[in-house]
Amino acid sequence: MATALPSHAQDAPVLRVTAKAPAKGLTGATIEMHLEVMTTTWFLQPPELPKLDLPGVMVTPPAGHGELVRDEQDGLALNGLRYTYLISAESAGAIQIPALSVTARLGPGGAPTTAESAPLSIEITGESGPAKIVGDLTVTQAFELAPDPMVQGGRITRSVTQRADGVQPMLLPPAPLEDVANFKRYPREPEVVTLTDGRGGFVGGQRIDRADYVAEEAGRFTLPPLTLHWTDGGSGVPQSRTLPGREVNIQAAPKAAPPFSLQEDLAKLRHGLRWSLPAWVMPTLIGMALMLLILWLGRTWWMRLGRSVAAAGRRGKARWLASEPHYWLEWRREARAGQPVLSACYRWIRRISGEVALRPAMASLEEQDRLLAENALRQIYGTGEHKADWRARLAARSRVWRKAWRIHKRSGQALPDELNPVNQRRDARKGRS
């Protein structure tokens, strides 16, 4: 056992790191080295454990959470965590474990604190050879037949399971699943598992070796017994265990008649290969390939063309929405709708004549048109009894107004001064002034 000295003053949190391991061990055995990280306060985060690399030695780092421990040293009450490293050496000699540095954040300040353990030395004795087992070794085997009963071409799976306490699984010897006459062997990857107590504590190791044996012939054959050899780690006495073999009866595989004639099908396939392409196929394919190549090379131009066409479409739509025919159609729909409004009619009048009201727009037309407009306005906004036929008369007469306003616009004729609504508004302002 080795304990590091305190790394802080007495009035500051104390961190102590202690490495503990047996002074002696055997080759092939698993030695547990405990690393205790203790403090007078508490850990804000789990300690940062060092990595332990030893030449020629198998080292398994701690797995799972550390074990809670408490102790009192030099009059200080300490608490902390115990971590376990598994060490296995395959040859005799001294294992030198250097000082292990651990960093932890301690409460309440949380500043990083580092402490080291003292170096350790473990003397390994014994001889190299068959793996040494510490604790009980249990060996079992199983056979699986597919199908059962076996037929020629079927498979027998033979599995050997070894379970040992206190031994790392990588140190368990492989089962001698060798070739067998009249069978084709297919070995599988071994399953190596570390056994724990459910809380991360090391218990032992387990190794499962499997091999598939495929029957190549029909008959009665025997899978031979297997013998495993090891050395007991406590007494050093060689041990062995023989697993019994198994005799199997391989039946001949049934010959099922095919549901179709293979020769006839092959003949039909060969006959179907005698065909020729029409003369126009190759030029068509070449032309399509060239067209696709041109489209791909000119994709930038096609994209610009698409954007130009879309922009032209938007401009054309905007011109249509602002044109006199569009407003004329909107007025015709409004006239058929039956609502007592003239919204679309006013928009159409302003677009074709430039006036914003019905009376000024009628100034250039005949007397009967002006009377019709006045009568329509009175029936819309007045209290007259006959309000149903004004829209039909106005819609019918607006065709004549449209022709007249178009003629005025093409000829460029101005309205007479006494009928020009602009002059009328100017004269009205002069009269008020």
TrEMBL record:
Keywords: Membrane, Transmembrane, Transmembrane helix
InterPro entries (alphabetical): BatD
KW Transmembrane (keyword) present: yes
Membrane-spanning residues: 277-298
Protein name: Oxygen tolerance protein BatD
Species for this entry: Achromobacter arsenitoxydans SY8
Source organism phylogeny: Bacteria, Pseudomonadati, Pseudomonadota, Betaproteobacteria, Burkholderiales
